[in-house]
Design a protein that fits this description.
The complex is a heterodimer of chains A (317) and B (446). Chain A has 317 residues and is mainly alpha-helical. Chain A has 2 domains: 13-56, no CATH class; 72-307, MetI-like fold, CATH 1.10.3720.10. Chain A is 73% helix and 0% strand. Chain A contains 16 helices and no strands. Chain A has helices at residues 3-14, 18-24, 26-56, 72-79, 81-112, 119-126, 128-131, 134-144, 151-158, 172-200, 204-212, 217-245, 249-254, 266-276, 280-288, 290-305. In chain A, α3 crosses α15 (280-288) and α12 packs antiparallel against α16 (290-305). Chain A is flat. The two termini of chain A are 54 Å apart. Chain B has 446 residues and is an alpha+beta fold. Chain B folds into 2 domains: 4-164 and 324-391, D-Maltodextrin-Binding Protein, domain 2 (3-Layer(aba) Sandwich), CATH 3.40.190; 168-321 and 412-443, D-Maltodextrin-Binding Protein, domain 2 (3-Layer(aba) Sandwich). Chain B has helices at 4-13, 15-23, 61-78, 92-102, 115-118, 127-136, 142-148, 172-177, 187-199, 214-225, 242-254, 270-276, 288-295, 300-304, 337-348, 350-359, 376-379, 404-411, 414-423, 429-443; strands at 50-56, 81-87, 108-112, 123-124, 159-164, 168-171, 282-284, 306-309, 324-331. In chain B, the strands form 2 sheets. In chain B, strands 1, 2, 3, 4, 5 and 9 form a 6-stranded mixed β-sheet that branches. Chain B has a 3-stranded antiparallel β-sheet with strand order 7-6-8. The chains are: A mainly alpha (317), B alpha+beta (446). The A-B interface holds A 61-65, 76, 81-82, 145-150, 153, 164-165, 167, 169-172, 175, 255-261, 272-273, 275-279 and B 93-94, 97, 100-101, 118-119, 209-210, 259-267, 270, 273-274, 277, 279-280, 404, 407-408, 411-412, 417, 420-421, 424, 426, 435, 439, 442. Chain A: It is found in: Cell membrane.
């Protein structure tokens, strides 16, 4: 920058118009830059959520805008055994499926973390169940669990082990377990691959030191692998619980909440009441009732499993 | 500015040529008798009118071709451009709701049976054209009138276009093998036959899962054939009754005769699959099952062995099945209501309606008596039963008015789940009935 040019620039600065000055003003610039993001969040996140909560306090139906009815929808839900059944099954489904997914997923991750032939190929195909669209999984399981055409029933009958079809989804408890089975099958890859990524960040020197100390395999898992994995476990588990609790497609495609409403999750029941049944207000109330469960699950994962200072080499508070 | 009368006189002048050109030879010698001397309502078409229409997608390709050709002919004769959009079956209710709520969109929607009753405030009355085609074509059949008129009045809010009921579908060889010529039409006899079929390993099966069409159809049959109904004639909930209990106890005996694996998780497609796989021998379904079997060489033999008959009547005095009904409505927000009504009347007239009915092969049955002589009903003796679908004395929500609530009770499977709870042994008949009554009271509270 030459001296003469700088002189000229200074004079020009004094003649700036209001627009230039405005754009040079930092608070304004910050607001302007944030505005698109805020607008997107408001339009696609805050507004639908707010509308959903508002609808929960009205008696809106498809075809008629409703009036404010206060807690009426919630009062009805409290007395509705179908709603309580959905609450029970949502919690049960999430709890059992999460335990299943994490147990098997962690095991799979540990296996994949070893040196295996065709390691990359194996890791790639493990992801397959998670990559296929959920609806395709659901249709496949719908056939597997079909009361007349189940391949599992067929195999058992052909082998002479049974003489009638297996009851997968015709009565309440078998249907509940069958759906959990399908969800676990679908969810394992996500957990396994995420945990595998976590395993690979653990420094081999820790294992070497433990080996020199004469540790057993279980001790290495218990005192090195598991604690080091906890932070990523917390994140993955939070996501997994949210996905499982709000699951919709598997249940809707395989049982539609049947037999006799025994496999309704809160999400499917909300859809059934709100869209199919046309009671938007009631459906919204059921959907809103999922929020406390999700907040609790998130906080639990976050605080119970969050990163501790000792994992970074400091002492706990 | 053309109107409906001038159009018809033009048509009349060259009737033979026009019909041959448009519909082909099939209906040149139509046997449909239209009453003469019925004058059409005077509907001066608004100048510059254009129309947009929604209707459900076709069953068979010729449905769409003939429908579009009919609309094109309307354009040709009146200068009114007509755009028809074909919408998936699951989407038509939602699109109707949006159209009604926003007051924008299509002028005319052909939706399903109860839609005009739900959106009645947003619709133009169509009494003039409904009475006109009724007088001209032998009068409206029972369900046509039921779905067309606003409850308790003579005002037409919908124009039923066609309907189809669900008969008993059975394998002749199986029924004959257990000693019957045709399935008995009384309830104890029917139960007896199902027991024998199960013993012969050729079982019956009816959907008890959350299946919109088949599940509700079967539950309604159980109710109506025992004299039970979800509401009384005034629309008050009447589930809790000795008749309902009788129906539940009947199912309790009937269900163990069903196909191995049970039917409580069945969707709308399940009985079609089982029937086509020689696993199921007696069920209830619309005409689509028969045509699917007939058109596939692999299952042609099953189609040849298949018969249709009316579901056992029990105490009902007509076929206890509510036809799935197409119901056209004209919206108040339309800027061209006369053109819209003229189009609907035009489509119901014999030169348009009969080729369309024939093109549908029996998937849809007429709501106007005169069309009973259409060629389609003699094209295949096995579909003749569908001809009188619209004469049934039952509708969704029977015995009450057709309302939002009757549609909701259907969509939430209140009756289906009552029966499924008993069939699965999950509830006693009394408990299941009380639960259904509780749910129905909630739904019908307004």
């Amino acid at each position: 920058m030459s001296a003469t040019a700088a002189e000229g620039w200074i004079r020009k600065n004094q003649e700036q118009n209001w627009l230039t000055r405005l754009l040079d003003w930092k608070p304004f610039l910050v607001v302007m830059c944030l505005l698109p993001a805020v607008a997107l969040l408001m339009v696609f996140l805050t507004y639908p959520l707010g509308l959903g909560i508002w609808l929960a306090f009205t008696d809106t139906t498809i075809g008629r805008s409703g009036v404010w009815v206060g807690l009426e929808n919630f009062e009805f839900m409290m007395e509705d055994p179908i709603f309580w059944n959905a609450v029970f099954y949502s919690v049960f489904y999430t709890a059992v499926a999460t335990v299943g997914k994490f147990g098997l997923g962690l095991w799979l991750a540990l296996l994949l973390n070893n040196h295996l032939p065709f390691k990359s190929f194996l890791r790639a195909i493990i992801l397959l169940p998670w990559i296929v669209p959920t609806v395709l999984t659901a249709i496949a399981f719908w056939w597997i669990y079909n009361p007349q055409f189940s391949i599992i029933s067929w195999v058992f009958i052909e082998l002479g082990l049974r003489d009638s079809n297996i009851d997968f989804i015709n009565t309440a408890w078998p249907a509940r377990w069958s759906l959990i089975g399908a969800n676990v099958w679908r969810g394992i890859p996500f957990v396994a691959i995420s945990l595998l990524a976590g395993l690979q960040t653990i420094s081999p020197s820790l294992y070497e030191a433990a080996l020199l100390d004469g540790s057993t395999g279980w001790q290495r898992f218990r005192y090195i692998t598991f604690p080091m994995l906890l932070p990523i476990l917390a994140i993955v588990m939070t996501f997994s619980i949210i996905f499982t609790f709000t699951d919709f497609q598997l249940v809707y495609a395989i049982t539609r909440g049947g037999p006799v409403n025994s496999t309704h999750l809160l999400a499917t029941l909300a859809f059934q009441r709100g869209i199919a049944g046309g009671q938007l207000g009631e459906g919204a109330a059921i959907a809103v009732s999922m929020i406390p469960f999700l907040v609790f699950a998130t906080l639990f994962s976050y605080f119970a499993l969050a990163r501790r200072k000792w994992q970074q080499g400091e002492s706990n508070d | 500015m053309a109107n409906i009368i001038t159009r018809r006189s033009i048509l009349g002048a060259g009737a033979g040529m026009a019909t041959l050109a448009a519909g082909g030879g099939a209906y040149a010698q139509s046997r449909v008798q239209a009453a003469s001397g019925v004058s059409a309502p005077n509907l001066p078409i608004e100048s510059g009118a254009t129309l947009r229409m929604l209707r459900p997608v076709r069953f068979v390709a010729p449905d769409e071709e003939v429908f579009r050709a009919n609309c094109a002919r309307f354009t040709q004769q009146t200068g009114v451009q007509v755009r028809v959009d074909f919408v998936g079956w699951e989407d038509i209710n939602q699109q109707t709701a949006v159209t009604a709520n926003t007051g924008a969109g299509p002028d005319v929607i052909i939706g399903f049976g109860d839609a005009p009753h739900i959106y009645v405030d947003k619709l133009v009355e169509v009494s003039d054209i409904a009475e006109y085609v009724g007088r001209k074509y032998g009068g409206w059949m029972f369900v046509g009138e039921k779905y067309g008129k606003r409850h308790g009045t003579n005002n037409w809010i919908g124009l039923p276009f066609g309907g189809t009921a669900g008969p008993l579908v059975w394998r002749k060889s199986a029924v004959n093998a257990v000693g019957y010529q045709t399935p008995p039409s009384d309830l104890p006899g029917f139960l007896e036959m199902c027991k024998k079929l199960r013993q012969a390993n050729k079982p019956a099966g009816f959907a008890l899962g959350n299946a919109v069409g088949d599940g509700n159809g079967f539950a309604n049959w159980l109710m109506w054939s025992h004299g039970a109904s979800i509401t009384d004639a005034e629309g008050a909930v009447s589930v809790n009754s000795p008749q309902t209990l009788a129906a539940l106890n009947y199912l309790k005996e009937l269900y163990p005769t069903f196909v191995d694996g049970g039917t409580i998780s069945w969707g709308d497609i399940s009985n079609n699959q089982a029937y086509a796989a020689n696993t199921l021998f007696v069920t209830s379904n619309g005409v689509s099952l028969y045509f699917a079997l007939k058109n596939d060489p692999a299952t042609r033999a099953i189609a040849d062995d298949t018969e249709h008959s009316v579901m056992p009547l029990g105490v009902a005095n007509s076929w206890p099945s509510a036809p799935l009904t197409l119901n056209a409505m004209v919206f108040k927000h339309s800027r061209f209501p006369n053109a819209a009504k003229a189009l609907l009347a035009f489509l119901m007239e014999q030169p348009q309606y009969e080729p369309w009915l024939d093109a549908n092969l029996g998937y849809w049955a007429h709501p106007l008596n005169a069309y009973k002589d259409s060629a389609v009903w003699t094209s295949d003796p096995k579909i003749a039963i569908f001809r009188d679908s619209m004469n049934n004395q039952f509708w969704n929500g029977y015995k009450g008015p057709i309302t939002v609530a009757s549609g909701q009770a259907n969509a939430e499977y209140v009756l289906v789940q009552m029966f499924a709870a008993v069939a699965s042994g999950q509830s006693t008949p009394e408990a299941a009935m009380r639960e259904a009554d509780r749910r129905a009271r909630r739904i019908f509270r307004r």
